[in-house]
Amino acid sequence: MGMARGGVPVAYEVAAALHAPLDVVVVRKLGHPRQPELGLGAIGEDGVRLVNTELVERLEVPPEVIDAVAAQQDEELQRRLRVYRGDRPPVPVAHRAAIVVDDGLATGFTARAAIAVMRRRDAAQVVLAVPVGPPDAVAALGRVADEVVCVDITEGFFGLSEWYEDFAQVSDDEVARLLALGATGAS
Question: Is 86 strand, coil or helix?
Fold first, then answer.
């Protein structure tokens, strides 16, 4: 399950190596209205909604602001689902292991939402797989996922872009193309 968008190219490679089906899990960060990079929580498919209660209380963000941001992000989440999956149902994970893949961890709140989606779909086991992340985020997600596989846990973590030669944003078209290839087993 590649986290859209950046996790899908990584998940494509993982699925190919494991001869496993590829699908997408769509989650969206709930950014602060005045500082969108500051994550107040995340939403995901199947009605998943997580709020960083400690941060929201500290910043005194009213519930109606969270609701408005969540509604706006849900519109984009639904749009992406239509583009990526169309009428195709999600790959079933009930009573199976689900591997959630992203391009790396920062705070891990969107990864928490993706894990929650898999739990709602009754996955027997949820593994989070990422190439890089800071120790605190990896440890925190280890309490949420059944297992976290992180290739490089690094103390000197400043952002994902420093770990990639090319960290250009993955397009919707690229996600759809990789999902179609993963579904057919083509490469």
Answer: coil
Q: What are phi and psi of 26, to 5 degrees?
A: -105, 125
Cβ pair 176, 182 in contact under 8 A: no
Greatest extent of the chain over all pairs of C-alpha atoms, in Å: 50
Instruction: List the one residue out of 42, 91, 83 whose CA is nearest residue 171.
Output: 83
31 closest CA partner among 70, 80, 58, 3: 70
pLDDT (average), residues 59-65: 95
Would the pLDDT of 6 be above 50? Answer: yes
The per-residue pLDDT of the chain, averaged, comes to 91
Q: Give residue-wise pLDDT tens across range 109-148.
A: 999 999 999 999 999 999 999 999 889 999 999 999 999 9
**Identity of the residue numbered 3:** M
Phi, psi of 173 (to 5 degrees): -60, -40
Helix (H, G, I), strand (E, B) or coil at 52: coil
In this structure, the number of other CB atoms found within 10 A of the CB of residue 154 comes to: 14
Backbone torsions φ then ψ of 156, nearest 5 degrees = -90, 45
**DSSP three-state, residue 80:** helix
| Local confidence band at 182 (pLDDT 50, 70, 90 cut-offs) | confident
